[in-house]
C-alpha cells in the first residue's frame, strides 16, 4: 500500500532506518508547530493547549544526543516518556487539536522504533546546565530557565521571553538610527556620545563636510569596553580617518579567557570574552564583546566612518542621570536636527565643490581607503543622484533618501556605498526584521508598507510534516 505524503527531494531518506533520520519527521512537526505559534495561528495552537511547550521541552532534552554517544538509547527513551507524559497532562485542553494528535501518534511511532517501554524513568524537563559566566547569552538563558521554573506555579502574567536586543547606526552626513528606530539627520559637530552606560561607551567626532553647509560626517570613533569582573579589563578602541586598526589601543586583539566554541567566522575554535575581527583591512572591523552580548561594526568609506551597534536592552538601560546625553538612546537635540520630524529636505542649490575638491586632493589624503577616489566629486542633479543611489539601493526607503541627500550635499559618490553598507549592517544586526524598513514621512512607500503583511504558507508546511511523520 502506498503512503501518502509530500513529494520533495530527499523525502525518501526520512524513511531510512538510521536512528537519527527516524525522528526527523517529528522535528519537521516541531518546526510547523513553532512557526504556527509565532505566526499567530490561534486555530492551531491555543493558549490553553500546551503541546508547543511539550514539544519544545522534548527538543531541548534531545538536541545534544547522538547515536554515537554512550547511553543514547536510554536517554532518548527517557525524553520520549517525558514527552508522552506532558501530552497526557494537556490532553483535555487539546481535544480536537490536529497538532496534538499528530504529536501523540509520532511519539508512539518513535517508541516502537526505539523499543522504548512505556513505563520507566523520565528526563527532567529543566536539566541543570552550568552557565558560562563570560557569555551573555549563556548567562541570560540560565537565568531565564530558572525564572521560568520558579514562576511556573505562579501567575502566567509574568513575561519570560528571551532578552531583547537594540540596534543603533550612524553613517553619512550623519544619519542616525536610534534604539527606538527613529531616523534622524543631524549636525552635531564635534564630539558626541552615542552610547554611555555601565558597560560600554561609544563617542563619535563629526566635522563639516562642505563649506557653506551645516552637514557633518564622522571622522573619529572611540569605543570603551568597561571592566567586567572575571571576564575582561577595560579596553579602548579608537578609529580615525585613514587609520582603522585591528587592535585595541594597547595593541591587544582580544581580552579574557576562552569562553565558547565558534564556527563560521574565522574558523572553528575558542573565542575570548572580547575580541576584534578585521574583515577588510583599512575598511571593515568588527568588535565582539560576548560577555555583554555586544557587536560593533566600524567601516571607513571615503574620508568618513560608519558605525553599527547591537546591544542587549537591559544593558543599554543601565545608566544614571549623568549619562542621559546619548544620541542612540534619545536622538539628537532638536537644535541639532537637519530633518524635519522625519522629512529630509533636499538642498535647493548644489554645494560649492571647488574649495572642497582642492582640499581633498591634498597629498595628505590617501586614495586607497575608499570605494571611489577622493577627487571623484561631481555636481549631481536630483534625478542624477537618485539614479546613482538606485545602483546600490533598490528599495526607496530612508537609506535611499539619505543617499540622495548626501550626493546632493557633497557630490561625493562614496556616500552611496556608505548608505548601502549601513543598510546591510543594520540587516545583519537588527533583531526585528519587520522594523528594518523605514520610509520618509508622507511617502507612498510608507503608506503602502504600513498596511502590508507577509503571508506564510504554514498550512502547507504543517500538512507536509504530518504526512511524513505518519509514514
TrEMBL record:
One of its GO terms (biological process) is BMP signaling pathway. Gene3D superfamilies: Mog1/PsbP, alpha/beta/alpha sandwich. GO terms for cellular component: plasma membrane; side of membrane. Residues 115-161 are annotated as: Disordered. Its main location: membrane. It is found in: Cell membrane. It is a lipid-anchor; GPI-anchor. Residues 49-118 form the Repulsive guidance molecule N-terminal domain. Residues 165-431 form the Repulsive guidance molecule C-terminal domain. Residues 1-42 form the signal peptide. Keywords: Autocatalytic cleavage, Cell membrane, Disulfide bond, Glycoprotein, GPI-anchor, Lipoprotein, Membrane, Signal. The keyword Disulfide bond applies. Residues 139-159 have a biased composition (Basic residues). It comes from the Eukaryota. Residues 115-127 have a biased composition (Polar residues). One of its GO terms (molecular function) is coreceptor activity. Belongs to the repulsive guidance molecule (RGM) family. This is Repulsive guidance molecule BMP co-receptor b.
Amino acid at each position: 500500500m502506498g503512503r501518502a505524503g509530500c513529494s520533495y527531494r530527499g523525502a525518501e531518506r526520512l524513511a531510512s532506518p538510521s536512528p537519527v533520520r527516524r525522528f526527523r519527521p517529528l522535528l519537521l512537526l516541531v518546526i510547523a508547530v513553532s512557526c504556527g505559534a509565532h505566526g499567530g495561528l490561534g486555530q492551531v495552537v491555543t493558549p490553553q493547549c500546551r503541546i508547543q511547550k511539550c514539544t519544545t521541552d522534548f527538543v531541548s532534552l534531545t538536541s545534544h544526543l547522538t547515536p554515537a554517544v554512550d547511553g543514547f538509547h536510554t536517554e532518548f527513551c527517557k525524553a520520549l516518556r517525558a514527552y508522552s507524559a506532558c501530552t497526557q497532562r494537556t490532553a483535555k485542553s487539546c481535544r480536537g487539536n490536529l497538532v496534538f494528535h499528530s504529536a501523540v501518534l509520532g511519539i508512539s511511532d518513535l517508541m516502537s522504533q526505539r523499543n522504548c517501554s512505556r513505563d520507566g524513568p523520565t528526563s527532567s524537563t529543566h536539566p541543570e546546565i552550568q552557565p558560562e559566566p563570560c557569555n551573555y547569552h549563556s548567562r541570560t538563558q540560565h537565568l531565564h530557565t530558572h525564572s521560568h521554573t520558579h514562576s511556573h506555579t505562579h501567575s502566567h502574567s509574568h513575561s519570560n521571553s528571551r532578552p531583547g536586543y537594540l540596534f543603533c547606526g550612524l553613517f553619512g552626513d550623519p544619519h542616525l538610527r536610534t534604539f527606538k528606530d527613529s531616523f534622524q539627520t543631524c549636525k552635531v559637530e564635534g564630539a558626541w556620545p552615542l552610547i554611555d552606560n555601565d558597560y560600554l561607551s561609544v563617542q563619535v567626532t563629526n566635522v563639516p563636510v562642505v563649506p557653506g553647509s551645516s552637514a557633518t560626517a564622522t571622522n573619529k570613533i572611540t569605543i570603551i569596553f568597561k571592566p567586567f569582573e572575571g571576564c575582561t579589563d577595560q579596553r579602548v578602541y579608537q578609529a580615525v580617518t585613514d587609520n582603522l586598526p585591528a587592535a585595541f589601543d594597547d595593541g591587544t586583539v582580544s581580552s579574557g579567557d576562552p569562553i565558547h566554541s565558534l564556527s563560521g567566522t574565522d574558523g572553528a575554535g575558542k573565542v575570548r570574552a572580547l575580541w576584534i575581527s578585521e574583515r577588510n583591512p583599512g575598511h571593515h572591523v568588527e568588535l565582539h564583546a560576548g560577555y555583554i552580548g555586544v557587536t560593533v561594526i566600524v567601516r571607513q568609506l571615503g574620508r568618513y566612518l560608519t558605525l553599527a551597534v547591537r546591544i542587549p536592552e537591559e544593558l543599554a538601560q543601565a545608566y544614571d542621570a549623568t549619562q542621559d546625553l546619548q544620541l542612540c538612546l534619545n536622538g539628537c537635540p532638536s537644535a541639532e536636527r537637519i530633518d524635519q520630524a522625519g522629512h529630509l529636505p533636499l538642498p535647493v542649490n548644489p554645494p560649492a565643490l571647488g574649495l572642497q575638491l582642492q582640499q581633498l586632493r591634498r597629498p595628505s589624503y590617501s586614495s586607497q581607503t575608499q570605494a571611489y577616489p577622493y577627487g571623484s566629486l561631481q555636481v549631481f542633479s536630483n534625478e542624477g543622484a537618485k539614479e546613482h543611489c538606485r545602483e546600490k539601493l533598490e528599495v526607496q526607503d530612508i537609506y535611499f533618501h539619505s543617499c540622495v541627500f548626501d550626493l546632493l550635499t557633497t557630490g561625493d559618490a562614496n556616500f552611496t556605498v556608505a548608505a548601502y553598507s549601513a543598510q546591510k549592517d543594520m540587516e545583519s544586526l537588527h533583531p526585528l526584521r519587520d522594523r528594518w524598513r523605514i520610509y520618509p514621512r508622507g511617502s507612498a512607500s510608507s503608506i503602502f508598507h504600513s498596511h502590508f503583511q507577509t503571508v506564510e504558507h504554514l498550512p502547507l508546511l504543517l500538512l507536509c510534516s504530518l504526512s511524513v511523520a505518519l509514514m
